[in-house]
Design a protein that fits this description.
With about 110 residues, the chain is mainly alpha-helical. The protein has one domain: NAD(P)-binding Rossmann-like Domain (Rossmann fold), CATH 3.40.50.720. The protein contains five helices and three strands, in the order ααβαβαβα. It has a three-stranded parallel sheet with strand order 1-2-3. Helix 3 links the parallel strand 1 and strand 2. It starts with a helix and ends in a 5-residue tail after the last helix.
Length: about 110
């Protein structure tokens, strides 16, 4: 919990919210850079269980937090249906998709509207 003390101090999260994040399971139905961004944000935020599509993403999650529980599910769809946010640059679009997915998952864990 100390690792996440700054976000637990936020009114929007709090200690109870951080406990909900730690108890949450989040799926990452993305691939490539978007998936890497989502994994980094979700594990960094303290999500307790992460479902990813391959061992490479699982390894990334474990490198960030060795205590995170990771499930590998090859059937995860490689598209979350998120809009490309009007960005033309493919790298910027993937970064935005990954961040958008992670934020939606965290809002869900906190019981907030999407």
């Amino acid at each position: 919990m100390l690792r996440h003390a700054r976000q637990a101090a936020l009114d929007e999260v709090g200690a109870a919210g951080q406990r909900r994040i730690a108890a949450a399971r989040a799926e990452v139905p993305l691939d490539g850079l978007a998936a890497q961004v989502a994994v980094r944000y979700l594990v960094g935020a303290g999500v307790g269980c992460l479902a990813v599509s391959d061992e490479r993403l699982a390894g990334l999650a474990r490198a960030i937090d060795p205590d995170v529980r990771v499930e590998i599910d090859a059937s995860l769809v490689a598209d979350d249906g998120a809009e490309p946010l009007g960005l033309r640059d493919p790298v910027a679009r993937d970064l935005a998709r990954g961040a958008h997915h992670a934020l939606r998952a965290l809002r869900s864990a906190l019981g907030m509207a999407p």
